[in-house]
Amino acid sequence: MIVHLIDGTYELFRQFYGRRHFSKGKDERFGAVSGVLHSILEMIETGATHLGVATDHVIESFRNDLWPDYKTGEGVEPALLAQFQPLEEALTAMGVVVWPMIELEADDALASAAQIASEDQRVEKVCIWTPDKDLAQCVRGDRVVQVDRKGKTIRNAAGVREKFGVEPKLIPDFLALVGDTADGYPGIAGIGAVTAARLLNQYGAIETFPPTVLGEQRDRALLFKTLATLRTDAPLFHDVDELRWRGPTGAFAAWTERVGDARLLERCRKM
User: How many CB atoms lie within 10 A of CB 148?
Assistant: First the structure.
């Protein structure tokens, strides 16, 4: 079987701004929710059987306590923020497993789910559907891969090395050195992507760098590595068969009425 793990937060953002572009700035109340549901139904129609969606039920996480400038919900448009919980409820009604994260982030859920699924010998492949570079650390050979829907690319371990210049396991170290503006930490001054890859390939993880390489910046680099390292210990499920889609629940018809999209129910009934 192939297990598909979807970044619900990214998909909601993608649908929201994609629809705004075509609607000339007029936001539908549940437009992004409807878009995400359709995209997941398309996956099921084309053969996906085992799926899980991770969302940021609360934007903030434990990382905000470690670094004050870490990303928050500040600046997220109210019209978009208001669709997070409806998305979680609509997915559940559609029969899709959802992990709404509070203390951890959606990325941590994806990493944890990938870890659990990849340990099951029945699983042929785990596909993590997100372009987020953080998730590149979860890639393992051809068994756990990262799918960039927008860029239409599937990135295995060789693809991670080609893009970043380092092995997947060194992605947290790489991000710690170069920074991640999306997550709100700056990296180490004077170290860009090329230099970071060279240092990591020469010395290995930051902890094994000679003291003279980072000097007084070592502790900051290790802090940023902690921010970039995804948690894989979230107890999301015990058996991958818990992720099998078995059709919508009885509550889904009401949800399609609420979002004003009868086509969702029609697509479900055809499967």
Answer: 15
